[in-house]
Amino acid sequence: MDPLIVASDLHKSFGSTHAVKGVSLSVRAGEAYGLVGPDGAGKTTTMRLLVGALSPDAGTAQVGGFDLQLRTEEARAGLGYLPQRFSLYGDLTVVENLQFFAQVRGVGSADFVKRAAELFKFVGLEGFEHRRADQLSGGMKQKLGLACALVHQPKVLLLDEPTGGVDPVTRQDFWQLIIRLLTEGTAVIISTPYMDEAARCSRIGFMHTGRLLVEGTLRELTASMAGRVLELAAHPKDTVKRTALADPDVEDVLTFGDRFHLRVKEAAGPLARLPGALAEAGATVERLRSVPPALEDVFISLLASSAKGN
Amino acid sequence: MRRLRALIRKEFTHMRRDPRTLVMILIMPILQLFLLGYISNDVRNISAVVFDQDNSRASRALLDAYRAADYFSLDYVAYSEADVTQLIDSGQARAGIIIPPSYGGDLAAGRSAEVAVLIDGSDPTIANAALSAATFVGQAHATNIRFQQLAVRGPAAVTAGLPFEVRTRVLYNPDLLSSYNIVPGLIGTILLFTTMGLTANAIVRERERGTIEQLIVTPIRNWELILAKITPFILVSMVDVVLILLVGTLWFGVPIRGSVLLLLALSGLYLLPNLGLGLLISTFARTQQEAQIVILPLMLPFWMLSGFIFPIAAMPAALQVISRFIPLTYFLVIVRSIVIKGVGIEILIPQIAALSIFAVLLLGIAALRFRKTLD
Question: Which one of A141, A235, B164, B355 has the minimum C-beta count within 10 Å?
């Protein structure tokens, strides 16, 4: 099956800032692509290039086989987009917003009534149809945004940090909606700063300073770090951190709540040495064991090596 | 068409949900109408047309006296009274001096001669100055002649009274009421505000609120977006024109001598260069505040240099040149000519041509710069 959206070697600069440096990706029907990375990594610029809100300095993007630069309107016909910033009309009501985007997208007025009812039920905005959009809560605004982005039944959906500033329950709802869209065969690209959200995606791309550093499934990405993460529960914190970093095989110590994740060159050495060293330093060790790596471990290790590379 | 209809309907909904702006658009012209008073000014070099039917030494001496006095600049020579009124109708000349064929003969024979001065009353500031200058210069010259006659021929040969009399007649606005001037002028400035200012804001607002990002990914074309943005303001502007004319007529007693239909049609033409300017501003400004920063300094010279407040004739030459690049300058001539003088379209061809050129240029540049993207 051909991918529904393909980007190859996209570049974009703003003045002297090279915001996106050669991003390539492709997403198939039913696939969710998670674009993760810290703020300022170029996620939003990439999203905007993929919908044609910005024109790239170099590279191409295709949606449903249509080049976004050459056959812009055909390409966009299959595209739904939820920008990071609320981009609907606050002075229009919920149903007026949906109706406006339905009309400019060419959804017939006969179809609209049925489609509107479906969408409001789907996103959970029933009963709020006549409320003005600027009087909705943050989560409901995002749901309305999603409804408007879906009104013309797009094949490709781009969501730019859709769950930013949204409460955990609504975030959960939102993901249920995305999963349903995926089962209906929509291709979804979602950008997020949250690793737990990225982990739900079929494929994950990690962006940093305008580059896509790695890409793969959760399993592929974490495989590279298998056997290189130790979980350590011990206190007091300062002593533990200092002592752990002194070990020749420990590359990094990350605090995860009341525990530590140690990134190690290999597990056997530290597993043998650390309990003794920590006890000697006066720390109490509750637990030290090898654990499967989380996405966070992978990305922080990537960031560290890319920082060393620079 | 469906897209355009949806866009236009949306613009009207915005307008309905924001009644404060709407009230301001409709109340402002009335407020200004009452606020703007009479601003008097020293006027020199009033452009005049001369119809010298006598063409004698005596008549040339009289014209020299007018020339020397600096109030009039005798720019045109006419060969019929129709020419004189035509030049004044078109606004090229502000005054006409008509010397009868018998002028030289009457003076020589010691009879009293009559010289007619026609004055364009549509701009009361200029007309007032022209009126007093015409009378004053005429009387001074007549007194001169009287002294010469006395010296040459002695008191016996001279009739009682002055050797000639200047008869002045103010055209169009015999009482020289300034509301005649302010009311039509307001039509021009109000339309400037509603079209240029509000259009720029309406477009910039989409960018400022981020809604442009959602519009971009829809199949809406640039021209559809532009047309939808300006349509409500064109309608409101036309309501304003009618409102100003109504209050002007009913309250200030300004008669509308020309065709209201022609006035509305040419108001429509005048909207185009202003809309072009508004669009152009919107392509530069990212926030409404940025747009205001451009609009305010632009409005000021438009008001000051277009002849709305100060007569162009009273400006230094350099500013007069600038005034030619302001669409409002031409529209003021149009609206004053139609309302006060009642002239028809044939007189206004140069102004219509100027506005059309501005419209094509400004809208063209704006359309080229207008892009439905974020960069």
Answer: A235
